[in-house]
Specification:
Layout lengths: L4 H26 L5 H24 L5 H9 L5 H29 L2 H4 L15 H24 L8 H20 L5 H11 L7 H21 L19
Helix pairs in contact: 1-2, 1-4, 1-8, 2-7, 3-4, 3-9, 4-8, 6-7, 6-9
Length: about 240
């Protein structure tokens, strides 16, 4: 049981995150703009915060293959554990997408076949493939810095971990939701895409998040968490008292 709990937590947490967030996109389509990007950003951000609060102590609360890959690169988790996590995350994402398809196919079919594609991230008309990768990479860089700053760093304010990560997700959507969907997460892209069978520019949501997230993890792990080195300006230790 101990070995299955973390991947299972990743599956359930990713499922809930995408079901609520992508579901909000479908609801926004159903209400013809009634929620807007602020509502969608709030749905994704609050869902992430709740899942991190619920499962962070069990699995670490990744819910994102880009986070898991970054942690594996810097040695925070083993490659085998990372593989388990990524499979669980993708399964949870696909299950969420399929359930959303089942719901919206009967309630509002346009949410499946229309422009929202069940919440699949979509590039704006004027955003190129390379620009989209840059946007996703930079925002994923910020997300991983936040993850490290509020949950990994031993000096971190642990009580703020869930809120901080949720806010980072929400703010990314507010900044770039209309441009790329601000996925920052390959699972968030693949779940709805699989259910809607919409794969346009799908590689953007793997390349950008993995690249930006890994760079941020390496920066924080090897620079900000590195032990301080003594310099010539460091005062010498006082000499021991003479008996």
């Amino acid at each position: 049981m101990r070995t299955i709990r973390p991947p299972l937590a990743e599956l359930v947490g990713t499922f809930a995150f995408i079901f609520i967030g992508a579901g909000a996109v479908g609801t926004e389509a159903y209400t013809r703009g009634g929620m807007g990007w602020i509502g969608i950003a709030a749905a994704y951000g609050i869902a992430m915060a709740l899942m991190v609060a619920s499962f962070g102590t069990i699995s670490g609360g990744h819910f994102n293959p880009a986070v898991t890959i970054a942690f594996a690169v810097v040695g925070r988790i083993s490659v085998l554990r990372a593989a388990y996590y990524i499979v669980a995350q993708l399964v949870g994402a696909v299950l969420a997408g399929l359930l959303l398809r089942l719901i919206f196919a009967g309630v509002y079919p346009e949410a499946v076949i229309g422009s929202s594609h069940l919440g699949t991230p979509v590039l704006a008309r004027d955003v190129s493939f390379s620009t989209a990768i840059l946007i996703e990479a930079v925002l994923s860089f910020v997300l991983l810095l936040t993850v490290y700053g509020v949950s990994v760093d031993p000096r971190a304010p642990r009580a703020m971990a869930a809120l901080g990560i949720g806010l980072a997700v929400a703010l990314a959507l507010l900044m770039a939701g209309p441009l790329t969907g601000a996925a920052l997460n390959p699972a968030r892209a693949i779940g709805p895409a699989f259910a809607a069978q919409y794969w346009d520019n799908h590689l953007v949501f793997w390349i950008g998040p993995v690249l930006g997230g890994t760079l941020a993890a390496m920066l924080y792990e090897f620079v900000f968490l590195a032990p301080d080195e003594p310099t010539d300006l460091t005062p010498p230790s006082p000499a021991p008292p003479v008996a």
